[in-house]
Design goal:
- The chain starts with 10 loop residues before the first helix and ends in a 10-residue tail after the last helix.
- It is mainly α.
- The longest helix is centred in the first third of the chain and has 60 residues.
- It is built from 17 helices and no strands.
């Protein structure tokens, strides 16, 4: 269902919103074509940045595996997974909540500063909590402090990059983030090539090199943002709505991460490392194929929030677009897999082609669920994310426990398709429910307070 209040506010809104604020809402709606072009540009920059990350990851995985061997590569992967957990706890849902609640005229520098204020305290607490676990994992080596230092460095850099990405998505100014990401990934690939050529096989050296190389990205980004000085200093605004909404979204974020990653942990436990090797080839490509949907959601969140406050948020077109994109991406995944897996990877990976269809179905479900959850978050309703992600996590765990022991990689692929399909159905139903009515008065009041200042003439 969609709202039909396109050109004027309802009588209820007219009684609760001042005339000058209504005029500002109309002016915001009048700039929709310009905003649409800005969204396309922002999405393009974010997708390009993720494409560079994906390409660099493939190269680095090959180099690290050849240099470190299976045991060393596994240790490095485990430590990196812990840094991802730190990043998830540090962000605490603010990567979704901040773009949905940020003022529409917030520039890149101000938006990044806001995100740093949101992320920094939780990042410190998360690193303090997981640091002892890192020492326990590495108890059998002589370089505990080196491993811990590398872990803290990587975790810090990931948190900074998350703040930069969310600031770029919220402000619509993503070119500094793209430039910085390319610089960081190129540096990381170069460092990995040097370590491989030198025969380096210690976990601590790779971990420190990983963090030091990625640190180039925030340094470049902050330098570019400082050069683009704003016309006047940005005024601080309350981050309480973003923080509250982010904390409500955190359980869903944790559930989503478990749904996305736990299959790769359970496969060697319930199946074998060979099955994991077959599965990861296709699953990684499928994951890369659906990244653009989340980038689009992040870039559109401020615009959706404004439209919801005006009573003009339409959900049918974004949901249909996500469905169409998922279908096209899935067909592309199937076609590319049949054409490339055996010629590129060899006959030993031929059975991986059987995983293409269930993973393509999962890509459709994942695309639709992320779009639906993004629309619901724009209304400041965290319940839709919880309704979609937590049950899908339960479905995923149950399916993996039943299917992986019997069917290996195919069981993981089918389980993920079932879980993402359930997430899509639940997310769409919940989103249609929360977007069918007018915004609550509390949401209108918060938006009025955040947007009561006139927009600055330029963006930083």
């Amino acid at each position: 269902m969609t709202n039909q209040h396109e050109d004027k506010p309802s009588r209820v809104e007219a009684r609760t919103v001042a005339p000058e604020q209504l005029g500002r809402m109309r002016r915001t709606a009048a700039t929709a074509p310009t905003k649409g072009r800005s969204v396309v540009r922002t999405v393009g920059h974010l997708v390009l940045a993720q494409a560079f990350v994906g390409a660099a990851s493939l190269v680095i995985n090959i180099l690290a595996a050849r240099s470190m061997g299976p045991a060393g590569r596994g240790s490095l992967a485990l430590l990196l997974q812990l840094t991802y957990v730190v990043n998830l706890l540090a962000v605490a849902g603010s990567d979704r909540s901040y773009p949905a609640t940020a003022p529409v005229d917030r520039g890149a520098r101000a938006a990044t500063a806001d995100m740093l204020r949101l992320v920094a305290p939780a990042a410190v607490l998360a690193m303090a909590a997981l640091g002892p676990i890192v020492l326990i994992i590495d108890a059998g080596t002589r370089h505990h402090l080196a491993v811990l230092s590398g872990f803290l460095l990587v975790a810090t850099v990931l948190a900074l990059n998350s703040a930069l990405r969310t600031g770029a998505a919220a402000s619509g100014v993503a070119s500094p983030y793209l430039t910085a990401t390319v610089a960081g990934q190129v540096t990381l690939v170069a460092a990995a090539a040097v370590l491989t050529a030198g025969g380096a096989d210690s976990v601590e050296v790779w971990l420190i090199a990983y963090g030091g190389s990625l640190a180039v990205a925030p340094m470049v980004a902050f330098g570019l943002l400082r050069r683009a000085a704003p016309a006047r200093p940005a005024q601080r605004h309350s981050l309480a709505p973003a923080r509250r909404l982010g904390l409500r979204l955190l359980p869903a974020a944790v559930a989503g991460m478990i749904t996305l990653r736990v299959d790769r942990i359970m496969l060697p436990w319930l199946g074998s490392y060979e099955q994991l090797g077959l599965y990861i080839v296709v699953a990684t490509v499928a994951e890369l194929a659906i990244w653009p949907v989340q980038s689009y959601v992040d870039a559109q969140a401020p615009r959706w929030h404004q439209r919801f406050l005006q009573g003009d948020l339409r959900v049918s077109r974004p949901l249909l677009a996500a469905t169409a994109y998922g279908v096209v991406a899935g067909i592309g995944l199937i076609a590319a897999g049949h054409l490339l897996i055996v010629p590129v990877l060899g006959e030993e990976y031929a059975s991986a082609t059987g995983l293409l269809i269930p993973l393509a179905v999962g890509a459709v479900g994942y695309s639709v669920s992320r779009m639906a959850v993004g629309l619901a978050v724009a209304t400041e309703r965290a319940g839709s994310a919880l309704i979609a992600d937590i049950p899908s996590m339960v479905v995923a765990l149950g399916a993996y426990l039943v299917l992986i022991p019997r069917h290996g990689a195919m069981g993981a692929a089918v389980g993920s398709a079932v879980a993402y399909g359930a997430a899509a159905v639940l997310a769409v139903a919940s989103t249609l429910a929360v977007t069918s009515g007018r915004p609550h008065r509390r949401f209108r009041a918060q938006s009025t307070n955040n947007r009561s200042r006139p927009p600055s003439p330029t963006r930083n």
